[in-house]
Amino acid sequence: MGYVVAKLFTAFLLPPGIFVIILIIAGFLAKKFKSLFFLSAAFLFLISIKPVSNILISPLENFSRSENITPKAVVVLGGGINPYGVFKAAPEAFKRETYGMILAKKNSLPMILTGGGKLNEAMLAKNDIRLFEKNCKCKIVYIPESKALNTYQNAKFTAALFKRLNIKKEIYLVTSAYHMKRAYLLFKKFGFKIITKPVDFKAGPVVSWRDFIPSEGSFHISYKAFHEYVGILRAKFR
Question: Which of 114, 191, 192, 228 has its CA 20 to 30 A from that of 41?
Fold first, then answer.
């Protein structure tokens, strides 16, 4: 019993749980907009629990396409950097990079990582690739695309790179599972034929009562899902 109380106390002492409590208290104390406070509390509570975050993210992660092609390259979408670590990619990006390198090695294909920013993600990725090569005693043909700042630019600048290098636009596309549908839509707009290769799935089994109390992890997954749905809508009308 003490364990359960401790977990509940922690869940509602830290964000987002503490904000659910604040909104409920505000609802009781407010003279106006009581319904708004209570509805906001209910909404925040729901998107912060695992069953609901699963419902939101699963339709995105279940997306896959496999066109009848022989890919000519592996395209990996950047996902953030950590310039101070042994590996320079942020955790999510590192999963993308690693799977991209495995595919490139397995299929003897060049790997293009697309991503720029102030610290130039695509160029920093060379460090991770060299470490991979050292450990697998292999060679990865790596072509950085270092100007893109978002998914639309990933597709646009990668298409320009393929044209410049005279590479046929038939690819394995590697990105996080929740991000794949938007990436696929945008790369298709620029003429790519694609076999999707998702990594880093966020949805997971609901296994205990703890999955029904607010957590930062579930809230973060819900946020990513909402972000993708907005991005997909923009991609369709772009």
Answer: 228
* C-alpha distance across the termini of the chain, in Å: 54
DSSP per-residue codes, 141-187? -EEEE----SHHHHHHHHHHHHHHHT--SEEEEEEEGGGHHHHHHHH
Residue 78 has a pLDDT of: 93
CATH architecture of 48-200+209-238: 3-Layer(aba) Sandwich (3.40)
Overall pTM surpassing 0.90 (yes/no): yes
Strands across the sheet containing 111-114:
142-145, 111-114, 73-77, 170-176, 193-199
pLDDT at 115: 94
The domain ranges of the chain are 48-200+209-238
Instruction: Please give the C-alpha separations between residue 191 and each of 56, 66, 127, 188, in angstroms, as whole numbers.
Output: 29, 15, 31, 5
